[in-house]
Amino acid sequence: MKPCKDSCRFDAISEIIGHLPVGILILNSAFRIQISNSAAKAILNSKDGLSESLGSLRVATTREQATLNKTLDQVISGSVVNSEWILAMSRKSDRKPYVLRITRYHVSTPYSSAAQSPAVIIFITDPEMARVSHPDSIRELYGLTAAEAQIVSMLVAGKSVNEICSDLDISISTARTHLKHIFTKTDTERQRDVVRLVLSGPAWLGAGLVQ
Known about the structure:
It is a single chain. With about 210 residues, the protein is an alpha+beta fold. The chain folds into two domains: about 1-125, PAS domain (Beta-Lactamase, 2-Layer Sandwich), CATH 3.30.450; about 130-210, Orthogonal Bundle (Arc Repressor Mutant, subunit A). The protein is about 45% helix and about 20% strand. The longest helix has 16 residues, at about 1-15.
């Protein structure tokens, strides 16, 4: 029963992270990629500084690869007491470097002989991308109209009220009316409070990424 239980747990982990908008890789103790969500696959497939080769994570330069490998060694061995490591990895384009947040984790997988195999979780953030919660999720969660939810989604994406008015072809007066209703329905007082509410809530699980 144990292999089945571990396999089901492994599949559950894959299913959960598959819905997250941040790139996530889970590596085994040999630094081989065991799980990657869709956001991570998109980043690796773009080959803009990060890529996959023979099941391993590759970065843009030899120096950065050495730094990454050393960090992974420390994470797996536990030789350095640290909750997480933050690395910036350059890109082949002129875009801002990827940010890797690396932490240690014990997980049971169908590929491990031990019940609890040490693993590495890497969260990949692209500073060039903004996370956008889907308007439908926002509308259902906070009881907003479609128009109000669209405005909230655009605020979360970092757009100003003037930009939103231009994109939606509405007046400032109309936008302010929508914002007033949004504040009332979400029990907030300012735009930044609305953004914070959405980013700290469940709507981000269905979020997408845009430039």
